[in-house]
Amino acid sequence: MFGMGFFEITLVAVIAIIALGPEKLPKAMVEIARFLKKFKSGVEDAKSTLDNELSISEMREEANKFKAQIEDAKSSVNVNNMDLGLNDIMNDTNSQENEVASKKELTSKKEKKKKKKSQEKDEIKNLETNQEEEISTKDEISKDEDPSNKFKVKFDDEKVKEDN
Predict the structure, then answer these.
(1) How far apart are CA 114 and CA 96, in angstroms?
(2) Is the overall model pTM greater than 0.70, yes or no?
(3) Which of 96, 94, 77 is CA-nearest to residue 86?
C-alpha cells in the first residue's frame, strides 16, 4: 500500500495512537475513511470526464474525416450526368394519377348510363300508361259513340221533325 511495508504501517499506527490518544483515534479513522472515499470518487469522476472529452474529440476528428471525404466525393462527381431515376418515378406517379382519373371517369360514365336507362324506363312506363289510358278512353268513346247509335238518334230526331 503506497509502497510501504509492514514496518512502516505499524510505525504510523503507533505515532497516531500517541498523538491522538485512544479516545479520538476511532473518530479520526472514520473521518480518514470518508476522506479517502470522497477522494476516490473525485478521481473516478475526473477520469470519466476526461475519457468522455477524449471520445468527443475523437468523434469530432472522425466527423471531420467523413466531411472531407464527402466534399471530395462532391467535387469528383459531375451532377449533370447523374441519373437518379427521378423521371421514371415521376412517370410512374403520372401514370398512376391517370389511371385513377380514368377509373373515376368510367364510374361517372357508368352512373350516367344507369341514370339515363332509368329515365328511359320511366319514360317508357309513362308512355305505356298514357297509351293504355288513350285506348281505354277510345274504347269508352267508341262504345258510347257507335255510328249506328248516332244514326238511330239522328234518324229518330228526323222522324220526330217529320211528324211535327
Answers:
(1) 27
(2) no
(3) 94
